[in-house]
Design a protein that fits this description.
Length: 103
């Protein structure tokens, strides 16, 4: 009895619109080929917060600026198939996207 091996793809970005568009391209390729897929599974969004002192201070009052960066993550499991992997390699990855593939 053979089991289907899955490829784990973890994708993350600070820009949610670019991330969703990129995942849409991947799911379109997988649906056209008819290969099994699980996902995209949304993982918890990581929030990085930084407080910096605002200059000039003025008359003794301390004012702070708050900066926040959100990292959105998605997880895909795609059945191992040579045709799909060749097409996925050809997709242009935007500079805002980071991707990790485990075979």
């Amino acid at each position: 009895m053979s089991t289907v091996r899955m490829v784990k793809i973890k994708i993350w970005s600070t820009n949610i619109d670019v991330l969703e568009d990129f995942i849409g391209k991947i799911t379109d390729i997988v649906k056209k080929t008819g290969v099994g897929m699980k996902g995209p599974i949304p993982l918890p969004t990581k929030k990085l917060k930084i407080r910096t002192l605002k200059l000039p201070h003025g008359e003794g009052k301390k004012k702070y600026e708050k900066w926040e960066m959100r990292i959105h993550k998605r997880l895909l499991y795609i059945a191992e198939d040579e045709r799909v992997m060749k097409q996925l390699i050809r997709i242009r990855v935007p500079p805002e996207i980071w991707m990790e593939i485990e075979l």
